[in-house]
Amino acid sequence: MEAVNLLSSNRYTEKQIGYLFISVLVNSNSELIRLINNAIKNDLASRNPTFMGLALHCIANVGSREMAEAFAGEIPKILVAGDTMDSVKQSAALCLLRLYRTSPDLVPMGDWTSRVVHLLNDQHLGVVTAATSLITTLAQKNPEEFKTSVSLAVSRLSRIVTSASTDLQDYTYYFVPAPWLSVKLLRLLQCYPPPEDPAVRGRLTECLETILNKAQEPPKSKKVQHSNAKNAVLFEAISLIIHHDSEPNLLVRACNQLGQFLQHRETNLRYLALESMCTLASSEFSHEAVKTHIETVINALKTERDVSVRQRAVDLLYAMCDRSNAQQIVAEMLSYLETADYSIREEIVLKVAILAEKYAVDYTWYVDTILNLIRIAGDYVSEEVWYRVIQIVINRDDVQGYAAKTVFEALQAPACHENLVKVGGYILGEFGNLIAGDPRSSPLIQFNLLHSKFHLCSVPTRALLLSTYIKFVNLFPEVKTTIQDVLRSDSQLKNADVELQQRAVEYLRLSTVASTDILATVLEEMPPFPERESSILAKLKKKKGPNTVTDLEEAKRERSADVNGGPEPAPASAASTPSPSADLLGLGAAPPAPAGPPPSSGGLLVDVFSDSPSAVAPLAPGSEDNFARFVCKNNGVLFENQLLQIGLKSEFRQNLGRMFIFYGNKTSTQFLNFTPTLICSDDLQTNLSLQTKPVDPTVDGGAQVQQIVNIECVCDFTEAPVLNIQFRYGGTFQNVSVKLPITLNKFFQPTEMASQDFFQRWKQLSSPQQEVQNIFKAKHPMDTEITKAKIIGFGSALLEDVDPNPANFVGAGIIHTKTTQIGCLLRLEPNLQAQMYRLTLRTSKETVSQRLCELLSEQF
Amino acid sequence: MIKAILIFNNHGKPRLSKFYQPYSEDTQQQIIRETFHLVSKRDENVCNFLEGGLLIGGSDNKLIYRHYATLYFVFCVDSSESELGILDLIQVFVETLDKCFENVCELDLIFHVDKVHNILAEMVMGGMVLETNMNEIVTQIDAQNKLEKSEPPVMEVHLQKSTLLERKRFLHL
């Protein structure tokens, strides 16, 4: 109370002590706040800069909701008023920022926003720094309103970077011009994508290059502060480069620079270099460049004295891992695990388990790795890890025998970890028969080995082992009596633990009463597990927050799915001929999609099942590429970003089709108001009828929902429908649009015909409107087999021995629509020398020839 | 943003603590203890950043610290701050203290805690960096001092700096 009285004093000393007391000792919920607010209000109105400064400080330091309510309207006015002193402006900017952080809803957006942006041009660098902080935070929430700040920030940055170090006088810190401001500006730019205006973009690139160049210059001072300040700017520039991820040249330079830092004697720099490189590794352009530093990083893991640095090294190894270096990295991580700090062991275990699974080419290696993992750090191996290894062994026939043999050998060790006993018990119970032929691992020996561990284990493990025993009864009738004896013993039948006792009683009974057949059925081998996301990955995500397992990793996982046994769902109907080219197409750089303006104007849009006509996002980048990939195949991933994955599975027969759209939530958070909408232009709607049902509006974290679209081709069409998805993720609204690959050629039925027939029909379709020809350059290597596969994937029959020139390809088929059937003939003439193709299409309908020619031309 | 600024000596005695987020008294004490525990067991010449500190923020949080003779200066920040930038800020803070107190030492922080708070207030406001220009800060502080002197003193308190406590400079520039 006394302090509040001091506030209203006119003497500076008293006022200051009062404020100091309040900002140090009063927490935001005090009842005194009302009184304090009054005093502050008076001071803000006093026009005495010192008093105003004190008042603003107090608001910022307490920053409670009541204060926000009282002053959120006032402070913007002070901030942009022309006659406010610089130091007050500075305080006002930060004060507003603080209030915005505590209660964003109370800070009104308005005219002042545009004037705030212009503070970036202010004379006083202190004001600019404060304003940049404010704008950065505001821009994260309202990117549109502060868009103009980008060009201003770039020009400001370029003035700082290119200035001689004496120009900025006081703001030059150890010969580095305004390092804090540079860092802030670079942060602000990270809120936005690369600037679109080429001039601004050029200027920014120039700045970034200058910053990178400066790093190479000899230091102007030996003081550590000089290099610190310089590197602070440099690291921020590098993270901006990584954020933009668009200039391969800059990315590689950044990577080289970081590589230099990896061997720097300053520990701080090594730490930061490892951290930045981790994000760099996820960029496609620089992934390879990052990989060249693998030896240094491994070395860091081994020799670094600081646990924080080692932790970063592990993270980086995890990020840079791909199939080419997985074995090396996993081996290194395993050997590090033996000496690792206890605090990070569990994380390393998870990472090793994930990498081993993700990049396993040879599953025997995978099994070895995981068993090693359990041996080295058994205590840190969580349930998920050993569940997963069992899932994988059960799903893969080729590794079962090896797994059984390996666990058998591992169990020979006198002391083995309980997790190993669990894995061993389970695997031998399922696949012990595969190694029983060897006299060294006969059924009895297997049983005795497991039973020797039995008494040392906890209750859940013992329960598991009892199940193993009953499985043995089925697998090996010769040990039946031994096992029955064990089950019958008092320690089992009268065990204090209910679960163990029950199992013992039931299994004993089962083994005595049931016939061999029944036993065989009851105790049959476990069926394969359904493929699902690795539970370990989910665990790591949970541990580290959703952002650390980056997009690229997901993409990598996708690519490796075929090898890891995720069976590519086979096309179901005869109409969609299995397309061997699908994978090749998927891996190669996809050609740009056929032209055909996507429906974008609001008037044309027809909402199929939502009444509210909401804005539709522009097509997602890469959507055109993906679209083209689906022309010759029916299944695959259509779209993927950090949050959402859209997979397609479709089948077509005659003029009908059915498409399964799978929406996968990749995060651990629920999507709310999830509404996918199919959008057809008026034109398309009359020719193509699509029917579907709305899906459940909530999609749980990690879950997948399916939507079925029934398709009928009424008449031939050229455009493609657009799939628009809107949902809420966390607090933010997401809006994604992709082109749905329903193309005319999906309604193709192949027709086989002899050479004679072909040329007869070819001649019949000789009128100029019926033929469309296109000559174009090859975008992919001209491989005969791939081309054949693509033509078949396109839907037509591939006719051999028809064309007199064996190098040419000839196809025939019928497009089915509800109204008519249209016969189509096609001929593709490659010219290897010129790397060109000539594609000729003859059909009975002009528009069909045109469209098919467009679609097919894009595929080669 | 900066979540907290802590200064404590080699024995873990807090010399200054400033929290920019509301914590209860107990938690504040725990945070100081935890931070001291984390920071003090680290060798010299390892890096100046460390993750952890479960009480403030969790995984998004970093402790950035510098050790000067008898004192640790620790800034708890979140990921929106540049690590090296904060490290420099600590240096600026210490250099400013040095200018204002002329050869600053641990005792100055004990006897002039109000001034230290004022200096800090000129640099960091509500968890955001306000001013990084040393001259500007010193000018502001000088202006305050002048104002203070121009007004008649409220009460005279003479603090005798104990000669038993070693007066040790902690800044070697």
Automatic annotation (TrEMBL), chain A:
Alphabetical GO biological process terms: clathrin-dependent endocytosis; intracellular protein transport
Region entry Disordered, spans: 537-606
Record carries keyword Protein transport: yes
Coiled coil: none
Biased composition (Pro residues): 591-600
Membrane topology term: Peripheral membrane protein
MF annotations from Gene Ontology: clathrin adaptor activity
Signal peptide: none
GO cellular component: AP-2 adaptor complex
Subcellular location: Cell membrane; Membrane, Coated pit
Occurrences of domain Clathrin adaptor alpha/beta/gamma-adaptin appendage Ig-like subdomain (ranges): 628-741
Keyword Lyase annotated: no
Compositional bias segments (type: Low complexity): 571-590
Keyword terms: Cell membrane, Coated pit, Endocytosis, Membrane, Protein transport, Transport
Record family assignment: Belongs to the adaptor complexes large subunit family.
Protein name: AP-2 complex subunit alpha-2 isoform X3
Species this protein is from: Callorhinus ursinus
